[in-house]
Amino acid sequence: NGVRINNIRYADDTTILADSITELQTLMVHITQHSQRFGLNINVHKTKQMVISKNTIAGAHLCVNQTRIERVEQYCYLGTMINEKWDNTQEIKCCRDKARTTFNKMSAFFKSHKLSLKTKMRHTRCYVFSVLLHGVESWTLNYAITKNIKAFELWMYKRI
């Protein structure tokens, strides 16, 4: 009995969700028409189409103003990589690698004997974990991924 949200917007980024290509095309026409009333045009070169499904769906073509929208297998939306199979293993690995780089850039700070363990832990949570957990809201966690994140956490703690 919830409300279905089919149009997600953040600044000038928009995501449209639909159960079928026909429904999606109808939404695109509606958005295009309303945007044009306010002098806004959809940039068809930056607009991408992606089908997220367990089944392979061929021939799903979306058009804006008679221009076919490029279909992609993966797309970076608000800094998070999304793919057709909704597999976020690569995204999580990328976040872990960025967090490791952040940690390594701060290695002199963590090796300092002048700072307390409490201060080092606070900085780790603030600067490293924020990078590691970027986009965590959209992750689908399983045992292997959780184990990998915990291993990275232990790796950091050993170096502090």
Automatic annotation (TrEMBL):
<protein>
    <submittedName>
        <fullName>Uncharacterized transposon-derived protein F52C9.6</fullName>
    </submittedName>
</protein>
<dbReference type="Pfam" id="PF00078">
    <property type="entry name" value="RVT_1"/>
</dbReference>
<dbReference type="InterPro" id="IPR043502">
    <property type="entry name" value="DNA/RNA_pol_sf"/>
</dbReference>
<dbReference type="InterPro" id="IPR000477">
    <property type="entry name" value="RT_dom"/>
</dbReference>
<dbReference type="GO" id="GO:0071897">
    <property type="term" value="P:DNA biosynthetic process"/>
</dbReference>
<feature type="domain" description="Reverse transcriptase">
    <location>
        <begin position="1"/>
        <end position="82"/>
    </location>
</feature>
